[in-house]
User: Which sequence fits this backbone?
């Protein structure tokens, strides 16, 4: 089943066309990695897919339900707010800079949306939160505050927070770019474990070896378009497009 469908998506900021007609599908259980140089539109694509950015034109569907359609005038028409609210429950997003609430404890960061958005009882929310903190090897940190944690621990809390809402699709925007190399490994392990559990994920990353190991499908973006896509062994090990080859050779 297609969990995410993007059709002919376009996004400009003023005169700058950042996303130029991008289409992609993400199937249930699939891990898609998006790679490409800085400024290629990767993060903007993620922000459009997660409704943090308005879309100029194109279509966006989750589980076959429209979040955005193209109207008769060629411009994007967003679904009614009630429908959008439902669709927002289908995905979670892990930011590059954690975005935790500094004045909330670790446990409250994970459980707050369960209580306020999903209207779960405090007892049920705490049960879910503690289970996820255990999964993230953070059980001993539930009463700590974000400033008391390492970057890697903060990112694991933000992953737990995203998972708490039981999303169908989990998006990661450069989840290791704010971390030291030794902390990067612990986050990549968490994502590897989620992939092994068949979690559907879309990951913007600059970690090529990780993308090769974990992703089922790689998308190489440059200048707002998908230049090349396919299986990791095709795109990373045997790229056909000259721009892909040039990008990968700079990383070698």
Assistant:
């Amino acid at each position: 089943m297609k969990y995410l469908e993007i059709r002919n998506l376009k996004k400009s900021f003023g005169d700058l066309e950042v996303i130029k007609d991008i289409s992609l599908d993400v199937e249930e259980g699939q891990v898609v990695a998006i790679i490409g140089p800085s400024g290629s539109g990767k993060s903007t694509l993620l922000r459009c897919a997660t409704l943090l950015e308005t879309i100029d034109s194109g279509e966006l569907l989750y589980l076959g339900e429209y979040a955005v359609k193209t109207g008769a005038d060629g411009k994007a028409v967003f679904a009614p707010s009630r429908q959008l609210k439902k669709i927002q429950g289908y995905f979670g997003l892990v930011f590059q800079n954690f975005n935790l609430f500094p004045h909330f404890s670790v446990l409250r960061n994970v459980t707050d949306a369960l209580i306020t958005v999903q209207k779960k009882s405090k007892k049920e929310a705490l049960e879910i939160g503690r289970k996820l903190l255990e999964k993230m090897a953070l059980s001993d940190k539930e009463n700590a505050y974000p400033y008391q944690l390492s970057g890697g621990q903060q990112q694991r809390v933000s992953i737990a927070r995203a998972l708490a809402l039981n999303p169908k699709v989990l998006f990661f925007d450069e989840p290791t770019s704010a971390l030291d190399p030794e902390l990067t490994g612990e986050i990549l392990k968490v994502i590897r474990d989620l992939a092994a559990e068949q979690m559907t994920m879309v990951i913007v990353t600059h970690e090529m070896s990780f993308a090769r190991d974990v992703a089922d499908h790689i998308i190489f973006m440059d200048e707002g378009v998908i230049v090349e896509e396919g299986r990791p062994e095709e795109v990373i090990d045997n790229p056909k497009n000259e721009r892909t080859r040039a990008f990968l050779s700079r990383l070698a």
Notes: The mean pLDDT is 94. Residues 181-196 form the longest helix (16 residues). Residues 101-166 form one domain. The CA atoms of residues 115 and 127 lie 12 Å apart.
